[in-house]
Amino acid sequence: MNASLNPGQLARTLAVEFAARAYAHDRDASFPFDNFAELQQAGLLALAAPRHLGGQGATLAQLGEVIGAVGYGCPATALVLVMQYIQHRSMGQTSKAGRTWPPHLAERLVRESVSSVSLINALRVEPELGSPARGGLPSTTARWTPDGWRVSGHKLYSTGAPILRWYAVWVRTDEPAPRVGTLRVPAGLPGTRIVETWDHLGLRASGSHDVVFDDVLVDLDNAIDLREPQAWGGVDAGLQADMAVLLGALYTGIARAARDVDTGTPVSATDSGLLKSLLTNHAVQAVEAALSLAGNHGLSRHHPLQRHLRDVLCGRIHTPQDDSARIAAGRQILIS
């Protein structure tokens, strides 16, 4: 791979090969192992990790560019990479309670992803609990013993399960007053099973299978953050921002791939007018959403968002305007 290329260019180059393999992986629901070998060789697996841990410390915008490019070629690969990036970014961020990843754990994971195909994802969703984002305690338990934590439980939608080297498992302790948090569990320990349940409509190659833990022994120092349940209250704004940007980039990549499927069939004036109206209004909504997140600062004359808003509004004025496009479409329906 050309080392002079920036991460976005590297990802776009790789995505050509990913796209060539995507149909077969989707058809067979097979996992795209080769894609991750190429991502690692290109230096893109540790792109999101902080520099002080051995990563590249890419900005969220740079990560979004990479995810969008990979998503253009193989959305399932991009989804697994999103989860890797989110976990790596969290290693350099302090949590709400003032705690963060223990440095020795974070450094080891980053070093591994630089030198080999090493990926991590959070395993949080359960049959009884659903998504923990909606509250409730996990059923997966971590029992303290002098030899280590004994983990038992069942996780759903474990994206990337066939390739993950590490699980960040959301657990509750079996203490009289249980604590809740994350244990870093190496994949493949005795008592761990991957149950191949993923047979989905979309993202079929993402390997989002179930993972079951049956009294799995985990080193005591692999506890990342265990707290009283009430200490986890509220939304983690940093995590939400990462998820919004990276998942948005993934699905935008899919939309670009769909847009670029051109059979050469001429488009009628009516259809092109409706398309212009739809895209223009979506662009306005996207800028308005960004402005609402920025708040009053975004309306300051020195802030670029106010300029972007003024500029994007001009799209509604260019021919054909919304009313003309819709009237033309209505007439065509009435006379057809």
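Above is the first protein from milestone M3; the second protein from the same milestone is given next.
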Amino acid sequence: MYEDYQNILEELKTKSHFRDLKDYEGKDEKFIYFRGRKLLNLSSNNYLNFADNEKITKEFLDWAEGKYSFGSASARLLTGTLPIYKELEELLSEMYGKERTLLYNSGYHANVGISSALCQKGDVIFSDKLNHASIIDGMRLSEGKFFRFPHNDMSALENLLERERGNYKNAFIITESVFSMDGDIEDLKKIIQLKKKYDCIMIIDEAHAFGVFGEKGLGVAESFGIINDIDLIVGTFGKAIGSMGAFVTGSKILIDFLINKSRAFIFSTALPPINVAFTKWIIEHKLPETLEKRKRMLSIAKIMGSDSHIIPVIIGGNKETVDLCEVLFHNGYFTLPIRPPTVPVGTSRLRLSLTSDITEEDLKVLGEKLNALTLVKQAK
């Protein structure tokens, strides 16, 4: 009965493409324990080391004093909205200077729920080709048309807009700010020019930038000074904030529309109240203390050739990438191989993600191993 699935799995194994869940023994801020070793974790989204932090956890639980339950037991539109949800939404609205904010259960829920609701029949989306799978899935679920422009190619985007914009009612430009597999930053200022010129709604996913970029940690939009020009900003709590969930902030009209039409919001049980409280507590009490650490982290990334805290090391083949991860494991580094379909065929890579407590000294041996690999490639 399952022969077709088994054959596909065997083919994945043959091509060094098979994935499985790993049995980690624990995590502790910038470290992970795996196969009996303590390793520097370079495959985490825990950018500010708030997750897996015993001191932070204890401090929060002492502060919370048993006020928040571990389950909401309802969707937000039923009995799942308690004061803490509104407090977090209002806090984010105030920080961004937006009219209203809405929480989602994850970044995936947000991206799927936003574009599938807003983009209706007769509408169109223009999306960066390297946008996250959740954005792609949201476009596919919408009733509108969508076009994908080459990554960060503003000339190609404008050509598309010039050719297609007049054929549709509402138009959306959707992109990430920091791209999770390449670590580069989209030309958001140019997109704003095109948004205004062609009368589009602009949606930015700041999943990997929220909590990292900007004086207040609001993302690339804050560091570029363009928050007011963006219609909807999406951010997640499961990365730099070390919590869980996501949000979208923008105009009251658009947020009200999502509350009424976004299936990913309407039909999901709300996040646990204690989780929402933890997110708000981190943003209010801990995020403001991280500016210097964040600046140092980004400066280290700059030395390693990246504009963000995400540093791609492209190897090419699947097996070679898997083998390099094993070499680094034996030298005290935890890295994971990133392979298709997450990245294009032939560009399998390491995705090194820095966290704010990692030092240049921590990366010394890593740099030596990667330099040696480069020399071997050149010799070939």
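Note on the second protein: Confidence is low (pLDDT under 50) at residues 375-380.
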